[in-house]
Amino acid sequence: MDLLEYQGKQLFARHGLRVSDGRVASTVQEAVEAAAEVGYPVVVKAQVLIGGRGKAGGVKLAGDEAAVREHAGDILGMDIRGHVVRKLWIEHASDIASEYYAAVLLDRSAKQPLLMFSTEGGMDIEEVAEKTPEKLVRHHVDALEGLSRAEAVDVATRGGADADVIEQVADALLALYEVWLAEDATLAEINPLIVTPEREVRALDSKVSLDGNALYRHPENQGLSDVENIDPIERRAKEQGVQYVALDGDIGILGNGAGLVMSTLDVVARAGGRPANFLDAGGGSDAEKVKQAVELILSNENVKAVLFNIFGGITRCDEVARGLIAAFADLGAGGQSIPFVVRLDGTNDVEGRRLLEEAALPNVHPAATMNEAAEKVVALARGARS
Ligand code: GDP
Ligand code: MN
């Protein structure tokens, strides 16, 4: 779950990282009021879940009210690589002497937290890592011991932070590690971490991702996901307790069990198709749940064909068939224009297939194996006859 800049900064402040005073604004008028409160000059910043806002024109300095009006008006509604700006962060502007970079993330291959620091902040850190890797210090933290002050000082020193701010940079690194650990973040990044001409170290930007599965431990963070532009179908699925992830293809997928759904995505891709979603109907799905899942899949307008891949265990194939039949009944006399390929195997599969055959649903095609099902659905999505 990715956070907007200002939300990340709220978490930073909670753990003692220095940030600038700022306010959220959704209209030009609110932006003007916010600027008056934090004091000029201010920075008007687009709040979208994507980086590179500065280059895209989504970060602008404003010295007076007229400038705030102009920039807020320009930035609100702006489309930054597919993200429409609905919120601004108005922050008291900082003078900048240096721009550093700092991040804590989970290094999955090393199975350890990774602390990174560089004095080449403000720019694309991937570029720094690629072209001048010696300028990016990488330090694995012992998860049980935690990050010590001595380690943080060492990282700041090796990274080449100015001598007079080493202690402050170390404080920032310790606080950032604390944010990552205490908030169950998967990523906590500051770019840039600035040094002001007055030699004060401060986070000027934030990029924080929280672990959605750990959110139950942080009731105070639960509201943060609401501002995200979650896919509306994903939101509905969440409310219904269905595991659904939107993808960008045109073949709707339903399976039972995350592993089976993952391999179904692979098989469809190998057959030359592009899945429109991941949907795990879960174990023991009853007819009602299957019906809901069909509705979710079909509410995506891109879907041209649907693949049902069920391996019955706890889930009974006859229940799945009943759900599909009920869903089709609800679709009404207008009929079902989207073809379904259905593979039922396992518990009560014979009964399930018999029910489907009896119902004689238009546009429902049985398949005996997963590969056959994938090939059929890809052909149907292409408009070919199976
Ligand atoms: P990003 O482009 O999405 O990473 O947005 P940032 O928040 O990092 O802002 C982009 C750039 O704008 C920063 O690297 C700074 O150079 C500049 N910037 C942001 N805030 C301020 C500020 O308070 N004062 C000054 N002088 N520049 C700022
Ligand atoms: Mn940035």
Characterization of this structure:
It is a single chain. The protein is α+β, with helices and mostly antiparallel strands and 386 residues long. The chain folds into three domains: 21-92, Dna Ligase, domain 1 (2-Layer Sandwich), CATH 3.30.1490; 98-221, ATP-grasp fold, B domain (D-amino Acid Aminotransferase, Chain A, domain 1); 230-385, 3-Layer(aba) Sandwich (Rossmann fold), CATH 3.40.50.261. It has helices at residues 5-14, 28-38, 65-75, 125-131, 149-159, 166-182, 232-240, 258-270, 287-298, 317-331, 349-359, 370-381; strands at 22-25, 42-46, 59-62, 79-80, 83-84, 88-92, 98-107, 112-118, 136-140, 185-195, 201-203, 207-210, 243-246, 251-255, 277-280, 305-312, 340-346, 364-366. The chain is elongated. The two termini are 41 Å apart. Guanosine-5'-diphosphate (GDP) binds next to β10.
Strand content: 15-25%
**CA radius of gyration:** 26 Å
Taking the alpha carbons of the first and last residues, their distance comes to 41 Å
Report the sheet with the most strands, covering strand number, pairing sense and barrel closure. Answer: 6 strands, antiparallel
Overall pLDDT score? 92
What is the N-to-C succession of helices and strands? Answer: HEHEEHEEEEEHEHHEEEHEEHEHEHEHEH
Tally of helical segments = 12
CATH architecture of the largest domain: 3-Layer(aba) Sandwich
User: What ions, cofactors and ligands are bound?
Assistant: guanosine-5'-diphosphate, manganese (II) ion
Spans of 5+ residues with little confidence (pLDDT < 50)? none
Shape: elongated
Give the helix level as a range of percent: 25-40%
Number of domains: 3
CATH topology of the largest domain: Rossmann fold
Q: Count the beta strands.
A: 18
In terms of structural class, how would the helical and strand content be classed?
A: alpha+beta
CATH class (first level) name of the largest domain: Alpha Beta
Tell me the CATH superfamily of the largest domain.
Answer: Succinyl-CoA synthetase domains
